[in-house]
Amino acid sequence: MSARFLAYRPAAYSLVLLSLVLAISLGAPLFAPHGRDDIDLDRVLAAPSAEHPLGTDELGRDTLTRVIHAGRYSLLVAFAAVAIAAAIGVVAGAAAGFFGGAADAGISIVMDLFLSVPAFLVLLAAAAAAGARLWLIPVIIGAASWVETARVVRSLVLSLRDRGFVEAARAIGAGRMRLLARHLLPGAIPAVIVAATTGFAQAMIAESALSFLGFGVQPPAPTWGNMLQNAHLFVREAPAAAFAPGFMIFVTCLAFHYAGEGLRRALAIGD
User: At what angle do helices 239-266 and 63-99 cross, to 10 degrees?
Assistant: First the structure.
């Protein structure tokens, strides 16, 4: 599997890039040239220099330092949101596909309701109502993003539940939970992994959009999204302050996309 993944060059390069971004973000205090919240009012909106390679923001804080620290929060929100969405999606999809009947009908109605309403509108309303607490943002994003995973798991469980190996397990007395956990869900794991990989980019964009509008993670905790929210007012005076977080969102989401495509090819999903 790893050979097929690495054979797709964009996925291999994306894996290296994501590993680098993750390592630098986790080790932010080691790599950042200044303190995260250090304010220097004598260098407000300063141009890039040797001391401040990406210049400073409207409070004189080093932009490069903020970008590095912001990666921690942006990636944390994305990972947590994807984990929550995957957990809800796997449970809902497995229940709908395995039990069928009323369970399938009820879960399908809920999925249709989620699909009929613009996802970002739901996110915006939920974030505004719940308050922009750091721990709530991934919960809100994850709770609004589980439908795709649920549909994938449902279809796979439906296709597997009547296979011979499942009937054999049922014949020797395997219970429902054992059938799901040991025989059906393992077959859905590759598709869930691929869906989760592409979900990282969607979660990151959702967090960035919420933060840009003021409903996401609030300062002083930096994310790439709220850095954009602050910097867009001063884009002419300090373009690097807006370009840097925007570029990080772009390249990270692109890397997740290619990594997901590499996993899809390696796991032969859709072939």
Answer: 30
- Rounded to whole angstroms, the Cα distance separating 198 from 182 reads 26
Class at the top of the CATH hierarchy for domain 2-266 = mainly alpha
Positive/negative CA dihedral, 165, 146, 77, 21: positive
Q: Over the stretch 172-183, which tens digit does the pLDDT of each residue have?
A: 766 667 777 776
What's at 129, amino acid-wise? A
- Split at pLDDT 50, 70, 90, the class of 161 is confident
Contact 78, 207 (CB under 8 A): yes
Write out pLDDT tens, residues 211-257. Answer: 888 888 887 888 898 888 878 888 888 888 889 999 999 999 999 98
The 3-state DSSP class for residue 148 equals: helix
- Specify the pTM: 0.85
Residue 108, H or E segment: helix 101-116
> Structural domain boundaries of the chain?
2-266
Please tell me the distance from the alpha carbon of residue 204 to that of residue 82, in angstroms, as a whole number.
10
Using H for helix, E for strand and C for coil, what is the string for 208-250?
HHHHHCCCCCCCCCCCHHHHHHHHHHHCCCCHHHHHHHHHHHH
- What's the mean per-residue pLDDT of the chain? 84
* CB neighbours of residue 121 within 10 Å: 10
Contact of 261 with 10, CB cutoff 8 Å: yes
Structure tokens at 254: 């692109």
> Which phi and psi (to 5°) does residue 144 adopt?
-100, 0
**In angstroms, rounded to a whole number, what is the distance separating the alpha carbons of residues 94 and 109?**
15
The contacts of residue 207 (CB under 8 Å, 6+ apart) are 74, 77, 78, 81, 137, 138, 141, 216, 217, 223, 225
User: Alpha-carbon distance 5 to 105, whole Å?
Assistant: 37
CA 11, 17, 18, 20 torsion-angle sign: positive
